[in-house]
Write a structure and sequence with these properties.
heterodimer, A: 307 residues, mainly alpha, 14 helices, globular, B: 237 residues, alpha/beta, Rossmann fold, 6-stranded mixed β-sheet
Amino acid sequence: MTVLRSDLAFFAGLAILAGFGLSVGSLFGTYWVIVALNFAMWIALTQSWALFSGLTGYISLGNVVFYGLGAYTVAVSFKVLPLWVAVPMGGLVAAVFALMIAVPALRVRGPYFVILTFGISELVKYSILNLETYLGKSSRLLFGAPSAEAVLYTMIALAVASSVLMRLVKSSTFGRGLVAIQGDETSAETVGIPVTRFKVMGFTLSAFIPGMVGGLMALRSTYFEVLQVFNPFISFTIVTMAIIGGSNDARGPILGAAFLVFLSELLWSSAPRLYMILLGAFLIAFVLLAPSGLVGLLRKYGEGHSK
Amino acid sequence: MTALLEINDLGTGYGDVKVLHGVSIALEKGKVTAVLGANGAGKTTLFRTIAGLLPCMSGRVRFQGEDIGVLASHKRVEKGVVLVPEGRLVFPDLTVAENLRLGAINVRARAHSDDTLKTVMALFPRLEERKSQYAGTLSGGEQQMLALGRGLMAMPRVLLLDEPTLGLAPGIAKQIFSTIPELLDFGLSILIAEQDVRSTLKIADYGYVLENGLVGITGDGESLVRSPLVAQAFLGH
């Protein structure tokens, strides 16, 4: 398989973005480190969501569970395991959890799957909350966590990894199989696609990076609080970004994350209510007028010009 | 006479509703076998059960002497039992070429996919012309060609064609019918379910008539055309 020009453009763009992210601290100061961290985090989360939900059409509204499990793993093992073990372990715990729930969860489709994933994430949230209360921990403080820059660099690596993964999967037979499942699951079976195996693999794969992201964010905030790391708002934001950016193409999550992160930077402190209203308005506008998101508009624009 | 695909006393349905009550059919190698019957007779249910989309509740499905009744769908495709489902279910968000390539996803077919692709494109030049177009943008006839082509990409030994001309314009339906005997050159055998009884019996070596989930009349194509029962039920005279 030859590398296409569009692939080169994508990887070059990604490298420039990553390079810029790595240098914002020295260029613009600490405040922008936080913004860049935020941006990279949402790219990694939304890209991972798109890998499964964007390609298969199984809309998960509970991806915060992977983030939360990763954060919990790092918080519990803090000062016990070295961080280079603990953070990937967070990813692993999230992936194993996804693998465990995949077979029963992926038996249902459409709105049932949406509700089920939301329910599972709430169930895990309250289970861990009760466990922590039982253990006598209302929250955990993480003293001596690495600097914001160190967290940022790792997060950028995760954002890049998730984007490259999405791009590679999308153009592989596995990725086409996932898209075929979205088209028609019965036909996918008749073609000989191992539908169950593909769905389970996709779901598990989409949990790993969010688990690591959660672990990193626990280090960033230096404390762990169950209701905060399992906040369903994180799941909602992921889906919102995927809808605005478009979720069947690796460029979509990047555009969606950029759009919302910068919109919130612009308005959050000065006009927080306006931000929420605009967010709702944009969401409705995209769902109704541009269901394939910014990336869909980009494609349409590109086609218009190449004709 | 050795049957390539042998269905014995097959019973199945959806939950408590039984649709097939003991159907027996034998498919000979290199032949076209037709399953005829009115709407609701159980043709699609039979095909889906052979392909593994519905469980085989009683009876057996044997392919080359092996019981495949408990295998998952994709395992049956790997063995060479391939269904082209009713309603031209192509993948709309993938291109024509991607649809065809996915057809060869099973291990046995994957190694030969480049050669098979050439053969399929030669059989349906239309697909070659439209290979980078999204399948959702094709016309009904083209989608049926794509569904057939995608089935062939799996290198089937038995091709199950469920209503391949349903909803197509008569001219295109005729074209599809004329292609079916050509498919035998691929060394495969065909089981076809169709509403168009007259055209089907012209190309079929043998036929079974399904009635309310049971096999009614059987016979070679010729004798079925002449059968007064078939004539009365399906041919309208």
